[in-house]
């Protein structure tokens, strides 16, 4: 089988890109021919595969007039559609697997696939298909005001990057895609990593006749060895409102569990000041750490905290924690409860700080239970997210549209 993989970035910038490259790795491992279609960048990862590229939009350094003149390309691009058509005709794929394409590539490329009768699957790693700001979270709370094609609410709330210009552009983009039936006619099957995102999409698209499937992310555990003990609780990730790190600080005022916080972001300084103000000496901010030093910190932790306020789909940090033998205390948002289940950690309502504090205390004081959950977590990621399990699910979804 020949598979053309399409994503707006060809470099490791987050979990979505890890997934994109993992799909390619596992397909090639099983003997399939793979090619890529993406945006051009000096940061792109080089592989032995054919990579078709188009110029990436530049909205950072351009003047306001240039931004306005080029803004039409974020909605629909004839040039990128033609480039995609040429790539299809040259590579001759049996199937096209699309990931994130908005703004940088635009759904115009999907028209080329439809015109050339090549089936398309789209993996949705965020909520862009139903929410102009990707998150169904307005910056301070969960939000579904755009349900029912009421995308003007994104402008009223200025919820796209906190910018009126981005919010207007994102709302217009959503209306254009709805008008042209981008999501109804141009994708043969939608894939979601969590049942939560699939169900939420059905709520928003109750009047659309679309084909849905589940494809959970693979995870390569070969770099991780489990350690079922540790001397502190750990948060690692972005320090920004929707990640809920401030909930950890609030809970820390009620308990004395040692906590290390790894990461950077717009809320870091504010939370550091809060910790100093309330003399939270058991909370330590370590800044931004990556690679082997971060792995060392993870191995030395007893458990990991994922306090997200928005509906995260399938947080990569949970896979890392599980692979290292660490249970997770996570919020009841998005796909997080599906991963933690009944015996791989503890769930809490992110609006209830006392519940978070109680969960932290429970995992900290009951060492035997914590170790048991860590072992269950490790077993789960080994059994359910192996390359073999992922490949079987991937091919089943491919066959659904090929037949």
Topology:
Blueprint: E1 2-6, H1 15-29, E2 33-39, E3 51-54, H2 64-70, H3 78-91, E4 95-98, H4 108-115, E5 120-124, H5 152-157, H6 164-179, H7 182-185, E6 189-192, H8 195-204, E7 212-214, E8 233-236, H9 245-252, E9 259-262, H10 268-277, E10 283-287, H11 291-299, E11 303-306, H12 316-323, E12 328-331, H13 336-340, E13 345-348, H14 353-365, H15 367-384, H16 387-402
Parallel strand pairs: 1-2, 1-4, 2-3, 4-5, 5-6, 6-7, 8-9, 8-11, 9-10, 11-12, 12-13
Helix pairs in contact: 3-4, 9-14, 12-15
Structural domains: how many: 2
- The span between the termini is 13 Å
Please state the structural category: alpha/beta
Please identify which CATH superfamily of the largest domain we are dealing with. Glycogen Phosphorylase B
Percent of residues in helical segments?
Answer: 40-55%
**Number of E-state strands:** 13
Written as H for each helix and E for each strand, in order along the chain, the element string is EHEEHHEHEHHHEHEEHEHEHEHEHEHHH
* CATH T-level topology of the largest domain: Rossmann fold
Strand order of the largest sheet: 3-2-1-4-5-6-7
Radius of gyration: 22 Å
Shape: globular
Mean pLDDT rating: 93
CATH architectural category of the largest domain:
3-Layer(aba) Sandwich
